[in-house]
């Protein structure tokens, strides 16, 4: 393909994303106020619980079969490597630039999670439609490309909502830090109410505090009783820990650090359902295809899924209004994120995929190899904006990062696509 043709192919989806971002920004302006704080919150919940699961599950059910999922085993490994390598580079970046702690999760997540689905759903079919495409017949290329990108999108969604979600949650969960400080608060026991506790403290914590101090008469007596209790506990000989006790302690410590509930998000559940529908032949025949008796369910999921990308992009654009007024993203931090996503990761990814191809893990399918390579050079995943909106932390900074990374993608993604396409052709 000519460089100019490829440039236009890669530029169009990025420009579409930027234009929708501008629309979201305009809708958030106070004079219009269609996407204000409340509206963004509700729209974000619709994306999280409805649109994104419908897109992921529906695409998988349509395109993935038992045969294809076995032959493409290296793709989950490849995407996992992009997350691991990107996280390492992102962690080094926040240390070098001395990024504020509450933004560590956002920066690491932006370096780790790439847009392995929504952007490729536009780029790959466009590349296949070119007359001189190196990937063969147009129809075959488009069908195979849709299946590969759908699997990439589903796997990426699992990693984002289990790995990146927990990283941003860990650094942005301010309530957890407040609860930790609660043990140092001096509680007034002369009344029946517990002061200085905010609404985000759990009911269990409140009950434990009430049961501990409901009989005390004044702060001095409470303090002396706690001191005597601590001395008594120190005098009790420690019991020998069993292996089961140690395992239980480690699991409890792990559950405190990682939000295990988010391993089964709506998107993850939809991925499992989509895989089961696609892999199990009797169910597939019932729901997938022009003559399937239950095809209306697949059609409904596809219709809902089409709203995912526009809705997510509008939210990012609306959040950008705050970022234009004030943002914690410095110049050097932004340059660092761009360098990680468009320089370091593509170079490392090139070596990873070539090594995998050399030992026979990948095969000789040029389109498959191209998608594996391009996964290292895409901008950050739009779902990061959804996560920051859920936690209400780093929303404006996330929008600034998205604006610059997607703006630079018009050049960087085009150049890397040109190089990778010539490499596999």
From TrEMBL:
Protein name (record): Membrane transport protein
**Function field:** Involved in cellular auxin homeostasis by regulating auxin metabolism. Regulates intracellular auxin accumulation at the endoplasmic reticulum and thus auxin availability for nuclear auxin signaling.
Q: Which PANTHER family match?
A: PROTEIN PIN-LIKES 1-LIKE, PTHR31651
- Per the record, GO CC terms? endoplasmic reticulum membrane; membrane
| Keywords from the UniProt entry | Auxin signaling pathway, Endoplasmic reticulum, Membrane, Transmembrane, Transmembrane helix, Transport
Main subcellular localisation:
endoplasmic reticulum
Indicate the transmembrane segments per the record.
6-30, 73-94, 106-127, 147-168, 263-283, 303-321, 333-355, 367-391, 403-424
Per UniProt, subcellular location reads as:
Endoplasmic reticulum membrane
Q: Which family does it belong to?
A: Belongs to the auxin efflux carrier (TC 2.A.69.2) family.
What membrane topology does this protein have? Multi-pass membrane protein
One GO MF annotation is: transmembrane transporter activity
């Amino acid at each position: 393909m000519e460089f100019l043709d490829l440039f236009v192919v890669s530029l169009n989806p990025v420009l579409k994303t930027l234009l929708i971002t501008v629309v979201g920004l305009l809708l958030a302006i106070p004079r219009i106020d269609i996407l204000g704080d409340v509206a963004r919150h509700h729209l974000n919940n619709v994306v999280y619980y409805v649109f994104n699961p419908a897109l992921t599950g529906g695409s998988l059910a349509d395109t993935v079969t038992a045969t294809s999922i076995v032959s493409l085993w290296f793709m989950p490994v490849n995407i996992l490597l992009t997350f691991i390598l990107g996280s390492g580079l992102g962690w080094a970046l926040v240390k070098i630039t001395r990024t504020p702690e509450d933004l560590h999760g956002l920066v690491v997540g932006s370096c780790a999670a790439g847009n392995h689905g929504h952007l490729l759903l536009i780029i790959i079919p466009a590349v296949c439609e070119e007359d001189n495409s190196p990937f063969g017949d147009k129809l075959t290329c488009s069908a195979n490309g849709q299946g590969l990108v759908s699997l990439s999108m589903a796997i990426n969604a699992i990693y984002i909502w289990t790995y990146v979600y927990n990283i941003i949650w860990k650094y942005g969960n301010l309530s957890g830090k407040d609860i930790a400080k609660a043990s140092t608060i001096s509680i007034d026991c002369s009344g029946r109410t517990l002061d200085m506790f905010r609404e985000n403290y759990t009911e269990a914590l409140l009950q434990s505090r009430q049961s501990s101090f409901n009989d005390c008469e004044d702060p001095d007596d409470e303090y002396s009783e706690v001191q005597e209790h601590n001395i008594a506990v120190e005098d009790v000989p420690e019991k020998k820990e069993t292996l089961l006790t140690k395992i239980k302690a480690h699991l409890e410590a792990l559950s405190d650090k990682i939000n295990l509930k988010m391993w089964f998000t709506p998107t993850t559940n939809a991925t499992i359902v989509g895989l089961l529908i696609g892999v199990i032949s009797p169910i597939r025949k019932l729901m997938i295809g022009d003559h399937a008796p239950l095809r209306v369910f697949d059609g409904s999921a596809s219709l809902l899924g089409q709203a995912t990308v526009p809705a997510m992009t509008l939210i990012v654009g609306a959040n950008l209004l705050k970022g234009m007024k004030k943002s914690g993203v410095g110049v050097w931090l932004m340059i660092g994120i761009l360098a990680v996503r468009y320089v370091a990761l593509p170079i490392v990814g090139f070596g990873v995929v070539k090594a995998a191809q050399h030992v026979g893990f990948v095969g000789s399918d040029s389109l498959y190899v191209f998608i594996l390579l391009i996964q290292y050079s895409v901008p950050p995943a739009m779902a990061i904006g959804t996560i920051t909106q859920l936690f209400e932390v780093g929303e404006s900074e996330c929008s600034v990062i998205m604006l610059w990374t997607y703006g630079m993608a018009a050049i960087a993604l085009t150049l890397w696509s040109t190089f990778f396409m010539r490499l596999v052709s």
